[in-house]
Amino acid sequence: MTQPNLRVRVALWLLVPLLLLLAFDAWLTYQRAMSAAHAAFDRTLEFSLRSIRDGIRLRGGEIEVDLPYLALEMFESNGGGNIYYQIREEGGRVVTGYPDLPDAGKVPGEPYSVRFYDDVFRGRPLRVAMLRLPVHDVPSAQTRVVLVRVGETIEQRQALAREILTGSLQQEGLLVVLALGIVWLGVARGLRPLNRLSAKVAARAEDDPTPLDTVGLPSEVTPLVDSINQYIGRTQSMQSSRRRFFNDAAHQLKTPLAVIQAESELALRDIDGMEAGSGSDRRQGVHLRRLNRAVQHAVRIVQQLLSLSRLDAHSGYTVRHAALPLHKVARSVTLDWSPVARARGIDLGFEQDARVEIMGQNDLLAELVGNLIDNAIRYSGDGAVITVRVAREGEHALLQVVDNGPGIAAEEREAVFERFYRSEATQAVEGSGLGLSIVREIARVHGALVGLTDAAGGGLVVSVLFPPLLPA
Amino acid sequence: MRVLLVEDNPILSRSLTDALTSAKLTVDCMHDGESADHVLRTQDYALVILDIGLPKLDGLEVLRRLRARRNAVPVLMLTAHGAVEERVRGLDLGADDYLAKPFALTELEARARALLRRSHGQEPLDAQCGTLLYDSVDRGFTLGGEALALTPRERSVLEVLILRNGRAINKDTLSEKIFGLDESVNADAIEIYVHRLRKKLEHSSVGIVTLRGLGYLLEAKSA
Questions:
Q1: Could you name the Gene Ontology cellular component terms for this entry (chain B) (predicted)?
Q2: A154, A157, A174, B32: which could form a disulfide with B55 (CB 3.0–4.6 Å)?
């Protein structure tokens, strides 16, 4: 499963804390906005408290209240909040107003001083201003203490605070969005070297031994590239030691194989030299011929494996290209194979439409043609007709080996180039499954393309299309 | 003819000696480069078959010293490494031919024969194909023991074919060999001689086969 990409991760890492911060900030803002609203509205509340105070008198031992309704009305109409008031003698009866307005025990200690507090009245939050007012009656020289309370529901204050909060949230939200956008772009920009690096890695040939370039990469990425390079280096050295081992092993096999081949041939000659040998001689002859065939097969496989390892892109082997006549190389190889073909009653022929020069290496081209003819002879069966053709195809040189054998099924035409691939249909034929791999490798080092098509009237056409010979 | 075989693998050395001896050659064997170099300073050989990977002194060095002494004896190099570079170096140092291990004995014998023939170019060589025999001394052919009557051109054509030793020859090349480069002879003229030769070889065990696009091949028909 793939992890969310880096951009999303960075954005999330930024967004979540930012939102938490924003929430905290909103809370703080709301608190400040509320206290600012209180500061503003409390003054009005205090004003109405004081205007109420002016109408309170003590006359004949009785508290008289002359309410300045105007002040209260003005106050009430101002914002839609409800005003509740209560005037009460300290420790005594309620003179006027809402008797159930709570005092929450927040009675100011000092006379004439005003105290503000929050409370809840009839299920609604209330801001209350309370005044402790001593009232004098000069004629009776009496003094009574009255508690005056004016409470106001706080919708207006809340509305103001919310308004402040909304404005500030809009601003901050915009900032967050902008910040995320900048981060998004910044991450994309910062990741650009990584993208370039990954494109470079993706475009690498699978056998490219060169280390990755660290120039122009951010220092954070350099350790990663260094580790990749170390890994490439390890893989390379492992591969090259494996190749060396393989090469050495194959070479070590050659001399013993030469001995077995020579000895089996000598033994065969001895047997054949005997006129009308006994039954056991004949049987020995049969065994020796089988042995000889097997050795030749082993020899061929070892040679083919060495060819492949030599042609391997890492063998350090360089092709020596020289202008040479393809038609001559092809004809000479065809000639070399003609005894093998004749022994099997195969009509092996050569056709040449033109003299065709190509850039190439003689022995490799000969090996290519040889492998194609070998395959055609092996798989077409006795009595087949095989034609090696050299022609010019526009600017290109074309080499074809055409047979009238069973051909290769379309779905197998890619697989037959794989090393050691043997088709189900040809399991009975003695072969190594390396011939076409070698053909393709040799074609590759010559910049040529190998294609398989059906021959007219059945059979296989192997075409090798060489690049145009560039004018010197 | 004396042949020096320098090969460090004792079994292979013995196998090759057997094969060369049965081809009526006298074989001296050396198993390392130093003794080969030593013996080449004092003895004359018709052919040297020299392995490249040798103990003490490698084959290429033996070859270099040999050529430095202006000894022109034909040298056939053997190697377990098929690398072109090595082959090129060997040929640069003056090797006459090159054979990569493992090889068929017949291949070695054919190369050895070719080198001997080249170095003893003047020496006549007899050849045989089925019941057709060629005597290089009087350039005469016998078929089944009886002399074969041929015109000079026919004789030349048959000579070229039988000396190819079972290898086909391209029509143009054959034409060049018979008429030379200068003569403005139609290459098709060859076909006439081949046709006549076929008539003369009719009912024998030998025939001239046309290989499509490749040329002519003199071959013994299998019974």
A1: cytosol; protein-DNA complex
A2: B32
| pTM (predicted TM-score) | 0.61
Average pLDDT over residues A177-199: 84
Contacts of A362 in chain B (CB under 8 A): none
Q: How far apart are CA B86 and CA B144, in angstroms?
A: 47
What pLDDT is recorded for position B6?
92
Q: What is the pLDDT of residues A72-118, one digit of tens each?
A: 665 565 556 778 888 888 777 888 888 888 766 777 778 888 888 88
Amino acid at residue number A428: A
User: What domains does chain A contain, in order, with CATH numbers?
Assistant: 6-162 (3.30.450), 222-311 (1.10.287.130), 322-466 (3.30.565.10)
Architecture per CATH, B2-119 = 3-Layer(aba) Sandwich (3.40)
| Complex ipTM tops 0.90 | no
Whole-angstrom CA distances from A263 to A86, A267, A296, A435, B85 are: 132, 6, 12, 27, 30
Q: Tell me the per-residue pLDDT of A294-349, one tens digit each, with 9 for 90 and over.
A: 888 888 888 888 778 777 766 666 777 888 898 889 988 998 888 888 888 899 99
Q: Which of chain B's residues have a Cβ under 8 Å away from the Cβ of A388?
A: 213
**What does the pLDDT look like over A154-165, one tens digit per residue?**
888 888 888 888
pLDDT exceeds cutoff 90 at B143: no
Distance from CA of A258 to the nearest CA of B (A): 4
CA A204 → CA A200, A208, A232, A264, A448, distances in Å? Answer: 6, 7, 12, 49, 22
Mutating which of A252, A264, A266 best tests the B interface, going by the most B Cβ atoms within 10 A? A266
Residue B212 in contact with partner chain A when CB distance is under 8 A: yes
B165 interfacial to chain A (CB closer than 8 Å):
no
Domain ranges of chain B: 2-119, 127-220
For residue A355, which residues of chain B lie inside 8 Å, CB to CB? none
% of chain A exceeding 70 in pLDDT: 92
Three-state DSSP at A137 gives: strand
Minimal-distance CA residue of chain A relative to B87? A363
Chain A residues in contact with B12 by the CB 8 A cut-off are: 255, 258-259, 262
Count of pairs with CB atoms under 8 A, one residue in A, one in B: 96
> Would you call B189 exposed, middle or buried from its count of C-beta atoms within 10 A (0-12, 13-18, 19+)?
middle
Q: Is the pLDDT of residue A1 over 50?
A: no
Average pLDDT, chain A: 82
Contact B41, B69 (CB under 8 A): yes
pLDDT the model gives residue A114 = 84
Distance (Å, whole) CA A268 – CA B1: 25
Structure tokens at B177: 């060999």
In this structure, which topology does domain B127-220 adopt according to CATH? Arc Repressor Mutant, subunit A (1.10.10)
